[in-house]
Amino acid sequence: MMIDARLDKAVIASPLAIHGLTVSYDHRPVVHSVDFVTPPGSLTAIVGPNGAGKSTLLKAALGITPRLSGDVRVFGRPLEHEARHLAYVPQRSSVDWDFPARVIDVVTMGLFRDLHWWQFGTRSLRRRAMESLGRVGMEAFADRQIGQLSGGQQQRVFLARALIQEADLTILDEPFAGVDAATEAAIVEVLKSLRDEGRTLLCVHHDLATVRDYFDHVLLLNVRRIAAGPVDEVFSERHLQATYGGRLSRVQLARLTEPAEIGTEAR
Amino acid sequence: METWWRALTFTLGYNTSVVTLGAMLLAAGAGMVGTFVLLRKRALVSDAISHSTLPGLALAFIVVGLVQGDGRLLPALLLGAAASAALGLWAVQMISAHTRLGEDAAIGAVLSTFFAFGVVLITVIQSMAVTGQSGLTSYLVGATAGMLISEAQLIAACALGLLLAMVVWRRDLLLLCFDADFARTQGLNTWRLDLLLLMLLMAVVVIGLKVTGLILVVALTIIPPVAARFWTDQPLMMVALAALLGALAGYLGVTLSSVREGLPTGPLIVLAAFLLFLVSFLFSPRRGALASLLAYRRLRRRVHLRQGLLAVAHEEPIFDGLTLKLMRRRGYLRRDGVATPLGLAAARDAEHEERLWALYRELHPDDALHREHAGLVPIGQVLSADAIMALEMQLAPTEGAR
Predict the structure, then answer these.
(1) Could you read off the pLDDT of B262-310 as tens digits, one per residue?
(2) Would you call B187 an interface residue with chain A, using a CB distance cutoff of 8 Å?
(3) Residue B368 pLDDT exceeds 60
(4) Is B267 in contact with B260 (CB distance < 8 Å)?
(5) Closest Cα of chain A to B258: distance in Å?
(6) pLDDT tens per residue, range A60-103
């Protein structure tokens, strides 16, 4: 086994443990020495202002963006060895939706690494893809060209591609950006059901008003780690003030951190 | 004509048959590799590769010529071409990675410099005391007529290997092209895959030198994939179709060029490929120009008809010429513009359906169906019977109140 004896128990148990992660663009650190141990079985939000390095942190942790320094462990082992325990839902805008692919083609891509080159279109593959599509309410669209989908439907397809992997850890980059209210509700329901199955979800999130409703853990980030832990403890006025600086007014802060007043009017 | 027929039916002799098969395999491989290169949005790279083969080709000719007096030794020439193409690619990568120039600018700079150097070397060769100089021009526009059987076999074998490589790596390359970030999280080394794709592209170009010539080999990696895109929305189907269309173009081009000595193979293959593209562009039922035109006209007629019927239902006058014409042709309006009983009934139906659609939009605003059908399609074609019944039930009270 590749597990380092010096590692902490919490790190070994954690689906994604980040230590001292630093990323820089043009000599300017956009993520600076961040430590974060994702609690297993949690639904965690990464929250912070624009340009706080939320997506960059995840991309660097996943090896998509090169990191300047830092150590990333998936269940205590280096990322390369654990790639199959991990599903990634990128931002919708990161791909070309004019690509010649149908909904079902995109979903089956989640299983490509399990297929050998001599295997051609298999029926079980299609069945599993349809199951995943069913969980996000998209079976009827399986043979649609992906360019014909609405933003919310595109996001559902990406989620279905992650579902088919049956990963222990799913990392989502702004899954609610530019989607309709019904899709947002459907996605939250899927995420919560995955959490209830004991899986871990880590999600870049930008809507402060829904953090309390959707998530149980939160990482507040602004280039550096500001605070992390259970939402009830960490999502406080003091920490939000530290994360957002003067960008949030007293009234906004009070409304966000007062659990009783969380509701649609807070948006 | 008769010679062409014999070439088409592979009865023009063993040599021509092997050459034809080799060209078909090559074009199929080029179509497959080209599809991935196109989907990776790097179609220009093949241009850089093909032009930077020339100096290596010429240098190899000089070296072989000095050694044995005749420079025409295909394996050596192809190796030289591959080496200088690799150098050109490396230069493109270096320029785009370490300067602020984009890849397109780097490609432009590298391909013209390499090509210029190659042309200079060719003029040097013309004044050298070796034989076979005239054979070099066949690498510019391609010539299969005088091809040796061993050369044809080499090309066919390489192309077959290329096809196999594409089949083996098809899923990895597809992941890379659609979503490179996702591919990396799947444990794929995208840097190495990109390199693999470039190597395969280089192989296509180098093998294709003798068949289509270095200037035109680019067309084989671009035209068949673009034509294939018209016929399918499935990525791997597009790869297969591009291979098929490429092979067809190779078949037509090579057989045509074998009709008479001196007919250039490359241009004929490219023209055949263009013909296939033109047919796809015009007649593809999904994205073709003709299908789009017809779909547009159908939509326009439907919109006019619906507007006319709604105008009748609301007892508004109709002024639009096309609307009037369509309504009369359907028998909805009399010549003097008064609605017929048939027209009145259709107008009632149209209005009712409009109201069902409006209610549906109100109830399910995020449902994508309404975007496409916005009341122009009979609602029964889109929604299931029970959904329509539910809508009718909701609509009934307001209808009754009127």
Answers:
(1) 778 888 999 999 999 999 999 998 888 999 999 899 889 988 988 899 8
(2) yes
(3) no
(4) no
(5) 37
(6) 999 899 899 999 999 888 888 888 889 999 999 899 999 999 99
- Half-sphere exposure at residue B308, Cβ-oriented, CA atoms within 13 angstroms: 29
d(C-alpha B240, C-alpha B232), whole Å: 10
Domains of chain B: residue spans and CATH: 2-284 (1.10.3470.10), 290-401 (no CATH)
Q: What single string gives the DSSP state of each residue in B19-70?
A: HHHHHHHHHHHHHHHHHHHHHTT-HHHHHHHHHTHHHHHHHHHHHHHHHHSB
- A76 vs A2: CA distance, rounded Å: 8
What is residue A99's predicted lDDT score, i.e. its pLDDT? 94
- Nearest-angstrom CA–CA distance, B367 and B384: 14
Instruction: Share the mean pLDDT of chain B.
Output: 86
d(CA B309, CA B319): 13
From chain A, the residues in CB contact with B190 under 8 A are: none
The two three-digit tokens of residue A17, written as one number: 């443990």
Find the length of chain A.
267
| Interface test mutation site (partner B, options A16, A80, A113, max chain B beta carbons within 10 A) | A113
The first and second tokens of residue B269, run together, are: 């293959």
**DSSP 3-state assignment of A36?**
strand
A98 touches B: beta carbon within 8 Å: no
pTM check: above 0.90: no
Give the burial string for B95-109 (b: 16+ CB within 10 Å, else e): bbeeeeeebeebbbe
| Distance from C-alpha of A159 to C-alpha of A141, rounded to nearest angstrom | 14
Structural Rg of chain B based on CA atoms: 30
ipTM here: 0.88
- According to the model, what pLDDT value does residue A44 have? 95
Q: pLDDT higher for B378 or B25?
A: B25
Instruction: Give Rg (Cα) of chain A.
Output: 19
User: CB distance from B387 to chain A under 8 Å?
Assistant: no
Mark yes or no for CB contact B171/A112 under 8 Å.
Answer: yes
Distances (CA, A) of B397 to A80, B379, B400, B401: 63, 20, 5, 6
Chain A window 227-256: which residues touch B at a Cβ cutoff of 8 Å? none
Instruction: Render B72-108 in DSSP notation, one character per residue.
Output: --HHHHHHHHHHHHHHHHHHHHHHHHHSS--HHHHHH
Q: Is A15 on the interface with B (CB under 8 A)?
A: no
Strand partners, A73: A17, A78
Q: Where are the alpha helices (DSSP H) in B127-187?
A: 133-136, 138-141, 149-178, 180-185
Highest mean pLDDT: which range of B232-236, B253-257, B319-323: B232-236
> Tokens in use for A238?
């003091």
Rounded CA gap, B121 and A57, in Å? 52
Q: Closest approach of chain A CAs to the CA of B354, in angstroms?
A: 23
The candidate with the shortest Cα–Cα distance to A173, out of A50, A63, A90, A59, is: A90
**Chain A CB contacts of B172 below 8 Å:** 112
Contacts with B224 from chain A: Cβ below 8 Å: none
CA A186 to chain B, closest CA, distance in angstroms equals: 12
Please tell me the distance from the alpha carbon of residue A176 to that of residue B365, in angstroms, as a whole number.
18
Number of H helices, E strands in chain B: 19, 0
The A77-78 sheet, strands edge to edge: A28-37, A17-25, A69-74, A77-78
